[in-house]
Specification:
Low-confidence stretches: 1-15
Largest sheet: 5 strands, mixed
Distance between the termini: 42 Å
Oligomer: single chain
CATH architecture: 3-Layer(aba) Sandwich
Strand content: 15-25%
CATH topology: Rossmann fold
Number of domains: 1
Order of helices and strands: EEHEEEHEHEEHE
Length: about 170
């Protein structure tokens, strides 16, 4: 059965769930040590070490700076919880600020957020850019001061929020 596009409400029918982060975004964010959600087939690296669905990246050791573009949907919270515990990385997720998992894993623990001005257009595993955008707004989430500083340096890219002073209790 075909799946809906990345926003769950997007009208384009897709036959897969695997989407690649645009390479220009990875380049802008700098070097990452681990990508625990890497696609099995990838035309460009996102980190030094890649864990795929075959490796069970959620259950592998995460070392150093982590790039996290997790599966979107009900699993997002589990991946963010691990990044909260790891405390060194940047996540890319939909800006679902109304959800309990966003409140619990982002507002309570993130160092900084960068709400991206326009909707991202992800890529297929062959490297081709998708025809349609993601169907929902995205946010980059930093977990530590180094990652926050990198997001703050992305001038003109989105709205930066220093979360150290606005954390929910």
């Amino acid at each position: 059965m075909p799946h809906k596009g990345m926003g769950s409400h997007q009208s384009a029918r897709m036959e897969k769930d695997e989407w690649l982060t645009p390479p220009w975004l990875i380049e802008r964010l700098g070097h990452f040590d681990v990508d625990p959600c890497a696609p099995v087939i990838r035309p460009w690296p996102t980190a030094d070490k890649h864990y795929t669905i075959e490796d069970g990246g959620l259950y592998q050791p995460w070392r150093g700076r982590v790039w996290l573009n997790p599966p979107y949907g009900l699993q997002t919270e589990e991946w963010l919880k691990k990044l909260v515990i790891h405390k060194n990385g940047t996540a890319l997720i939909f800006a679902r600020t109304e959800t309990a998992w966003f409140r619990n894993c982002v507002w309570r623990y993130a160092t900084a957020l960068l709400f991206i001005h326009s909707r991202l257009t992800f890529h297929h595993v062959n490297g081709d850019q998708a025809v349609h955008n993601a169907g929902a707004p995205s946010v980059l989430i930093a977990y530590d001061k180094v990652n926050a500083k990198i997001l703050r340096g992305c001038v003109g890219f989105g709205a930066y929020v220093d979360n150290r002073y606005t954390r929910m209790t």
